[in-house]
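sry for the spam today, last one i promise. C-alpha cells for design, 231 residues
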C-alpha cells in the first residue's frame, strides 16, 4: 500500500531565524504604534489620501465592496468566537495536542495583544462611516487584519502540514487567502486607516512567527513521528 505523502516539516534549527524575523516584525509594529500615538493627527492626514482613493474604488465598483464584506465576515470576532474552539477541539479529537497548543497561543495570544494595543492607543476611525461608542476609538490596529494573520494563516499552516499532498496545498491556500485579504478588505470598506492595516500585519505577523518558532523548537513532532500520529 502506498504511503501518503506529506509536506516536509521545518527542521528545529529553522526556529532561530523565524524567531528573529518575528521579533523584528513585532518591534517594527510597536514602533509604528508609538508613531501613531505621538502624532495621530499627522498620521491621519497622511493616511487619508490613500484611504480615500481605495474607498472610492469600492464605491465606484460595488463588487469590490462585496468582496470586502465577504473576506471581513470570516475574521469577525463573532466568527472567531466559534472558529477558534472548533479548530482546537478538532485537533484534540485527532490527538494533535501539540498543534492545538500552537493554534491556541497564536490565535488567543494574538487576540489579547491586538485588543490591549487597540484600547491603549484609542485611535479614531476614518471619516467614511458612522461609528458609535467604543468602536469609534478602536481603529489601531485593525482587529480583522490581525486575526486574519493569527487565526486564518495559522489554520493554513495546520492544513499545510497535517493533510497529505496535494490536498494540503489545495485546502491550505483557502484560509491563507482569507487571512491575507482581510487587510485590503478593511480599506475597501473604509473601516480602518492604512497604517492600522500595516500595523496589524507587522504585529500579527510578528506574533505568528514567534508562536510558530516556539512550536518548531519545543513541540513540533519530527518526521520520524509521522506514522505514530497519523489518524
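last one done:
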Amino acid at each position: 500500500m502506498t504511503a501518503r505523502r506529506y509536506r516536509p516539516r521545518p527542521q528545529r534549527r529553522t526556529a532561530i531565524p523565524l524567531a528573529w524575523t518575528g521579533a523584528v516584525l513585532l518591534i517594527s509594529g510597536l514602533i509604528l504604534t508609538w508613531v501613531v500615538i505621538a502624532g495621530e493627527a499627522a498620521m491621519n492626514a497622511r493616511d487619508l489620501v490613500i484611504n480615500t482613493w481605495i474607498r472610492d474604488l469600492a464605491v465606484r465598483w460595488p463588487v469590490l465592496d462585496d468582496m470586502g464584506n465577504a473576506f471581513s465576515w470570516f475574521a469577525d470576532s463573532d466568527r472567531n468566537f466559534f472558529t477558534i474552539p472548533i479548530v482546537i477541539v478538532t485537533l484534540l479529537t485527532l490527538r494533535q495536542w501539540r498543534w492545538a497548543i500552537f493554534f491556541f497561543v497564536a490565535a488567543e495570544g494574538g487576540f489579547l495583544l491586538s485588543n490591549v494595543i487597540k484600547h491603549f492607543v484609542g485611535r479614531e476611525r476614518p471619516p467614511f462611516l458612522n461609528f458609535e461608542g467604543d468602536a469609534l476609538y478602536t481603529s489601531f490596529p485593525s482587529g480583522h487584519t490581525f486575526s486574519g494573520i493569527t487565526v486564518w494563516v495559522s489554520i493554513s499552516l495546520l492544513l499545510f502540514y497535517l493533510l497529505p499532498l496535494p490536498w494540503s496545498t489545495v485546502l491550505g491556500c483557502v484560509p491563507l487567502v482569507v487571512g491575507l485579504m482581510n487587510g485590503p478588505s478593511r480599506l475597501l470598506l473604509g473601516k480602518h486607516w492604512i497604517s492600522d492595516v500595516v500595523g496589524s500585519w507587522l504585529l500579527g505577523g510578528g506574533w505568528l512567527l514567534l508562536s510558530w518558532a516556539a512550536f518548531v523548537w519545543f513541540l513540533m513532532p519530527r518526521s520520524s513521528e509521522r506514522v505514530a500520529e497519523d489518524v
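The mean pLDDT is 93. ok im logging off now
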